[in-house]
Amino acid sequence: MSQLNIDKIRADFPILHQEINGKPLVYFDNAATTQKPKAVIDALSGYYEGYNANIHRGIHHLAEKATSAFEETRKSIQRFLNAPSHEEIIFTYGTTDGINLVANTYGRSFLQEDDEIIISTMEHHSNIVPWQMLCQEKGCVLKVIPITEHGEIIMEEYVKLLSEKTKIVSVVYASNALGTVNAIKEIIEEAHKVGAVTLVDGAQATSHIKIDVQELDADFFCFSAHKLYGPTGMGAMYGKRELLDKMPPWRGGGEMIKEVTFEHTSFNELPYKFEAGTPNIADVIALNTALDYVNDLGLENIAAYEQELLEYATEKLQAIDGLKIIGQAAEKVSVISFVIDGIHPQDIGVLLDQQGIAIRTGHHCTQPLMQRFGIVGTSRASFAVYNTKEEIDKLAEGLLKVKRFLM
Length: 407
Ligand code: PMP
Prior knowledge:
Helices cover 40% and strands 17% of the residues. The chain is of the alpha/beta class. The chain folds into two domains: 6-30 and 298-406, Aspartate Aminotransferase, domain 1; 42-295, Aspartate Aminotransferase, domain 2, CATH 3.40.640.10. The chain is globular. The two termini are 38 Å apart. The relative contact order is 0.17. Bound molecules: 4'-deoxy-4'-aminopyridoxal-5'-phosphate. The site of 4'-deoxy-4'-aminopyridoxal-5'-phosphate has 14 residues, from helix 4.
């Protein structure tokens, strides 16, 4: 039995209480983005209504209030990730932006021709393309860890790929398309044995798994606020100070400088060196509210409840004739990807939408992974803390209706 009061939690999310196509909304697209509690929405409007001001350089009351709220989020993220210091937390536009930052600064400065970068088969495009672009520019080689039919990384194959040529290992903690939770600590440990730097794509992990970057010994860890009940278009990256210190800045502009003349510019200290221009102030502040929300519920409680939902849904969906779950790892976050014999995922999505059920269909920005399984895409239901077993029943009934309609 869950420690959480799910009815009360549902009441915190205004968007859930509406009808779609005449049916109560069932929102199962949480791996794409989670919904936002009223407190987060209020934090956004509270900033614009009460203390909108640009941060850091202002000395008036509003600027100081905004600056302090903005910097508080950095400290909350530090605690949330258990990072050693808040100067090692860089605000980004999200996971994609964090990975691009590392590729464009660390990668471009310290990688050379024939150096190798390792990723896995189950990476999101945002953890493939920045490295490919880097490889193209520097003549590096991208190596890919194979996975099993169940959707798990083959550790022996990974270890075989490692050598002194390996400079970066960048792997997803939890897969958005399969739900697989990777043995990220072990992956990092092996990478460090050959002196490689590691990046963890934490986009799908932070809302389900307690993160401790020191215990993982991750060199970089990226996540997005919008998968964590926070706003879209912002996130953060943790980086070890010794690496961030030696990395050059990426974007140039205000805030990231110490002194500018037309002849020379000296750069600001951490974390500001990587934060050029006026940031996404309201959204940063609202992320703090989202973190409070998650901390108040307790990540362990959220994870335990979501596992209950995952098990329930796995059982229900597996009972449907012709349905195959893609991604059957021993350890999963609350994501179920599936295909149904003879039915295109798109049709499933459209017909479920007519019943008020929102799922995601397609390649989930993991086209190489879909190729690995020899499919064009999947239908994916992903659960958050406000979802219920009754909603999963509706999904199962909905899928039976889809089958009756199309077959
Ligand atoms: N990695 C994974 C595993 C993801 O699920 C996502 C978002 N779907 C991303 C990276 C990219 O996140 P964002 O679009 O917020 O930058």
